[in-house]
Please model this.
Amino acid sequence: MRVEAWDRIAAGRSKRPFFRFLKSAIPVLLIWWASAATAQEAGSAVDVLNKRCVVCHGCYDAPCQLKLSSASGWLRGASKQKVYDSSRLEDAPMTRLGVDAKTVPDWRAKGFFNVAGTQGGPSVLEQLLLAGRKTSFKLGAPLPVDIDISTLRANTCAMPGKVKDYLKEHPQGGMPFAMAPLADGDYETLLTWARDGAPAPDTDKRLPKSVTQTVQAVETFFNRGDRRSKLVARYVYEHLFLAHLHLEGDDQNRFFRVIRSRTPAGSPADEIATRRPFDDPGGPFHYRLIPIDGTILHKEHMVYEIGPKRLDRYADLFLKSDWEIESLPSYSTAAGGNPLSTFRAIPARSRYQFLLDDALYFVRSFIRGPVCYGQVAVNVIEDRFWVSFLNPDADLSITDPTFLETAIPILELPVAQFGGKISKRLEAFLSLGPVKYQEFRKGRYESKFKAEGGPDYSDIWDGDDTEVDARLTVYRNFSSASVVTGFVGAIPETAWVIDFPLFERIYYNLVAGFDVFGNVEHQLTTRLYMDSLRREGERTFLSFLPPQVRKPLHDSWYQGPLVNLVDLWKESALDSKSPTGIHFTTSHTKTEFLTSLLRKPAGLWAEHDPINRCSGSTCAADDTPAGQLRPLVQKPAPYAKFLADISVLLVETERDAQVFTLVHDMAHSNVAFIFNEDLRREPQNDSVTVVPGQFSSYPNFMFKVSQAQLPTFVETVRAIRSQDDYLKLVERFGIRRTDPAFWTEFDRIQTALRDQDQLQAGLLDLNRYRDPKPLDPIDRLFEFTFSMD
Model:
């Protein structure tokens, strides 16, 4: 009976109403089932994309600009246009995903080509996945010498209809590129997804009512109509435009960003694309909060909490104080590039406290920066240094109204004072405004110290007894940089003390005013200006030390005849006369000063680093992984120069797995020049810092060892004196790119990062992951010659 009834339904012969309904519903049900299956497939594929593809295709330096962190990225496709080009004379067209074009046709007009379409044959993605499965390199071994994995390699982009030609020329150019093959399940999932046209997953974009209410409250605050509120909103926006905003008390996986939109709240946001956050929006606009779509990358993940508590804090800082403004400043590069003049109406104390409230976020914004590859930008800083901040009550720009008013004309930033042809910009820069300000600042503080006595510990901001981010450690690892809370590692070579004018200028020089698509002139002037800002922070630090030690210490940071000539040309004389207000009890004044800062206030920071800076009972116990790793941080460390910039070490104990970061701290005679860094390297003075957990966005290599093997691992590292020795370490404990277990171990490292701090975690980037190889004959000769020296 049932079979006959089904046959009648299929043949359309049934007269019963139920069967007629079922007949009409079958196509709908089939469509729904197919759609649900496709959505489920897309969702599963996105999970694999995140773990296996976005790790190399997530930031500006993704090969061929193919960003796979969101559907809008893979639908946009790829481009032959380079984002990083230090030699270009003209600004490049901007290609910020979701900002500079809104539709696929708009991206096609900008030169991006389809990688996901399946019409007329297999898509680019499908063909590259298939090619990646056919790689012939030996698993667990170094890659063939003809495979270039360097970050700035010349990319050849596989275009539709020409993939076969591409693979003929680059037979190892499949995906994943130069990595261990994917597990069968991951590979099949991605291949099926690519063959289906790379469908986007269904996402529920509806926000909970409580989230919507918070968003509305924030937008209402930003869009108030009175002049004071408008200026405050502009100030806050220009400092948060890169932030991943997390709503107070919300899900730890949901983030927003603040934009300038043509449309008001209640309608879809329409972002106004400008090169810089202070550029003219071109008409009326509204500040809006929009959800961040796609995978969160650790490199780009700079979290800032916002909500009712934060809005109350803004009101206390900015709107309850007594100040007025007659007219709003204009929008333009010239007018907007200097925050000290643009926002002069807002009390300086309020602005400085706004920065201090979230010192880690703001320092992280210019240390991680808006760039993905930043070797030219970050080689302006030492490999590891400590940062503290001048107490607002000790900062003349806060306490003396005439200080900033007099200084503003000579505090113009490169982005503000430069415009037009290169010659005009360099002419403006070579007027040496930074030197004039150094001299002005030194004179004002000399007068202050003469009248009040030299600076002492109370002149360093103590975090108002609660803010642990009042002490920070910055790491520079060749082409990237990171910052963490507290003073980590051994006593560094240099340290900075940042005051309000310096804080603002660093932020606007490296973040708000920096253009990753800018020309060589922009990059050059940004780097040159940052040289002076670095020295300014160092000089403020030196002012706390006894006068007689300042110049010798400063000279030890800037060694070499050429740097001395530069100092005579573009640096003012160092203050070696003003007294310090600190009574030092040892001859190691730098160490005494920096360690004393960890005791003020007591208990806010750990005075000792149990691995890198300790003695006796303050050190990690010898039977713990941390204690067993301590020999690596001893000096001299002739083995350090062979290690990667950032190595992640997975130590398996009986109870759990612990992760450590081995940091290669590179020594330099100075960091005063933009080019030829290798000529200023002092590898014999390199050292290692061992940090529990992870902080870098770019692991360069991974090691795995059981705790029982840890002493052997440490002994093997300390015995390294050549590249061959290092390769023996890699062979025994390393996880190569080609290792069959690579993806499994990388997943463990990624999971550990999330467990360490879910709110701050993001996807790590493998674009810097190394492939250790034996030296070629010429390099081997150089290594031998250098070791003889």
Notes: Residues 391 and 459 are 5 Å apart (CA to CA).
